[in-house]
Amino acid sequence: MSEVVIEAKNLGKEFKSLKRESAVKDLFSRTYKKVKALKNVNLKVERGEFVGIIGPNGAGKSTLIKILTGILTPSSGYAKVLDLIPYEKRKENARNIGVVFGWRSQLWWDLMVKDSYELLKHLYKIPESRFKENLETFSSILDIDKYLKKPVRKLSLGERVRCDLAASLFHDPPILFLDEPTIGLDVVAKQQIRDFLTKINRERKVTIIITTHDMGDIEELCKRILIVDKGKKIFDGLIDDIKKKFGTERVLIVDFQDPVEKNKLKWKGVKVLDTEENRAFLGINTKKASVSEIIKKILSKWSIYDISIEEPKVEEIIRKIYREGL
Amino acid sequence: MYLDVTALGIKEMLAYRTEFFARLVGALINLAVLWFVWNAVFAASGLAVISGFSLSAMITYLVVSSCIGPLINSGFEYEIEWDVRTGRLSTILTKPVSYPIFRIFKGFSNTIFTLITNVLPIFLISILLINISLPVNFLAFLISVVLGYFVNYFMVFLTGMWAFWSTGSVWGLSLSRRMISDVMSGALIPLYFFPTWFADIARLLPFQTVFHIPLSIYLGKIVGIDIFYLFVQQVIWLVILGFLSYFVWKIAERKVIVHGG
To answer: For residue B81, what are the domain limits?
Structure first.
């Protein structure tokens, strides 16, 4: 049984932005240009999915998240979150979702973390018992017990984001939106957050939509990714597919016993990427050549110390897609 | 549920308690200054009554006026600006709350806290030490203060709303509003002191409903059925500014959710 919880159809968003000329000129006449932040985006997300949205800065990721959280209206098309049009029913939609903006805390700066939590309990009318239960679960997994009685301003970024994450989930929202939650965090904090997200996605079946620039987040958390660029959705599918489809290159690193001439390493579908003394880096296009065949050929001609194959990194594939398109 | 916002706001104020002690000291100094100045003025003039005010009435007027002042200046227009400027607005809008109601209830916390830590102590000290008189009609005074408070609240709200069009301009606008209000409301000098034409203009503006009306009732300058007409004036302004605030918020909200702020 699959149930669509988020749907977007031909979603588009245009912004008018002021074309600045000079401060004096702007006072009297203003010219605007239209910027298309989102173009014809179609999307369907099923309950329990963990979807990563990636794309360069200004690609439209945040615009998409803002529309789905109800704080921005699209210029064309529509979006639905659990059968509600989020930007028409902002408050109702707010009860169904949790939101964390990595760059902006929802906690009250001068108050203790638990004070903000108490307010959320009232705003969402969460029963005391459920609230306590969640507080216990979240503080044990996120390890935030010791921060609850500290004022938010005294927390480090990593501590604060963890507290924010818990805050977004007290009302048991079926859907969680995360806009760059790991931005600026150290490895330990990142890992804690990833573990937590994995857990609530699995155990509570919370549907999670995350935007990030961190490929570690994507590889560890998301099965499905959405790549947006210049407002367009340019890829939507499983992360494994993207590896298969675009990761057609393997890098073979060979350590020869004696120096080898570069021009002798020539086969169809093989490119010499680099050589350094006895070592050669060979790029093998797996569509044109088989890695094992090439290894066999090398072994039959030369004696070697070591040989290793490198998988393509998602990060590199993505970089290539950003640069060259699909 | 919005009252919880107020309650939490009061808790937040506690984080700034030193600021409130400083304000209390400031208010005491202010009290002393106005006492000395007006004693000197009356002594120099040789008159017992100036523009219908005896020395004691004058001091009572100014003390009560300086008690209303901090109550109505909660500074929540700056909070609105901060929301818009820093994007805190987005985090509030992702909650199941109405933004203006959230802000207004948050603003109450400042009023309540100021009332308890600042206004009531000053008022009691004034009664005990400088013998200010008590309100002629306490209930009517209370009603007029509350009505004036909300008239002012909407003016502050409208000032804060300006942030949606031009961040950074709220401070200047707020300052101008306060300066006009200080003169036109009778907060600094009773409207009775001004030439008739000036007082007439002031009576056409909303500011006088915040100070002039409650203070006139307090001192018994206006009594009986006339008090009712003052209430009507206040309610008219309340309705006008209330509707205006509502429409301005609707436009601002549209601006945010259509144009992204």
So the answer is: 2-259
How do strand A224-229 and strand A97-101 relate by DSSP bridges? unpaired
What are the pLDDT digits (tens) for A172-217? 999 999 999 998 899 998 999 999 999 999 999 999 999 998 888 8
The rounded distance, in Å, linking the Cα atoms of A326 and A235 is 8
Q: Which CATH number fits the domain that encloses residue A84?
A: 3.40.50.300
* Contact call for B96 and A124, based on CB within 8 A: yes
- One domain for residues A237 and A285: no
Which residues from B are below 8 Å from A122, CB to CB? 1, 4
A227 and A259 share one domain = no
**Domain termination residue (choose one: A218, A244, A270):** A244
Shared domain for A148 and A173, answered yes or no, is: yes
Look at A72 and B257 and tell me if their CB atoms are within 8 Å.
yes
The DSSP line for A75-138 is: SEEEEEETTB-TTTSHHHHHHHEEEEETTB--S-TTSBHHHHHHHHHHHTT--HHHHHHHHHHH
Count of CB contacts below 8 A, A vs B?
76
CA quadruple B220, B225, B229, B232: dihedral, nearest 10: 110
Does residue A157 sit in the same domain as residue A290? no
Mapped onto helix, strand or coil, the DSSP state of residue B8 is helix
Tokens representing residue A63 in the block: 């615009």
Which chain A residues contact residue B261 at CB under 8 A? Answer: none
Dist CA A266 CA A262 (whole Å): 8
Q: What is the H or E stretch that residue A256 is in?
A: strand A249-256
Domain count of the fold of chain B: 1
Encode pLDDT of A28-81 as tens digits. Answer: 666 777 888 899 999 999 999 999 999 888 888 989 999 999 999 999 999 999
Claim to verify: residue A182 and residue A285 sit in the same structural domain: no
> Are A122 and A238 contained in the same domain?
yes
Tens digit of each residue's pLDDT (9 = 90 or more) over A88-130 = 999 999 999 999 998 889 999 889 999 999 999 999 999 999 9
In terms of C-beta density within 10 A (0-12 exposed, 13-18 middle, 19 or more buried), how is residue A116 classed?
Answer: buried
- Tell if the CB–CB gap between A123 and B1 is shorter than 8 Å: yes
- Please state, in angstroms and rounded to a whole number, the distance separating the CA atoms of residues A293 and A297: 6
Nearest to A73 among B5, B88, B257 (CB): B257
CATH of the domain at A311: 3.30.70
Cβ neighbours of B96 in A, within 8 Å: 91-92, 94-95, 123-124
- A105/B91 CB distance under 8 A: yes
| A108 and A158 within one domain | yes
| Domain carrying residue A209 | 4-244
Tell whether A117 and A85 lie within a shared domain: yes
Q: What's chain B's Rg over C-alpha atoms?
A: 20
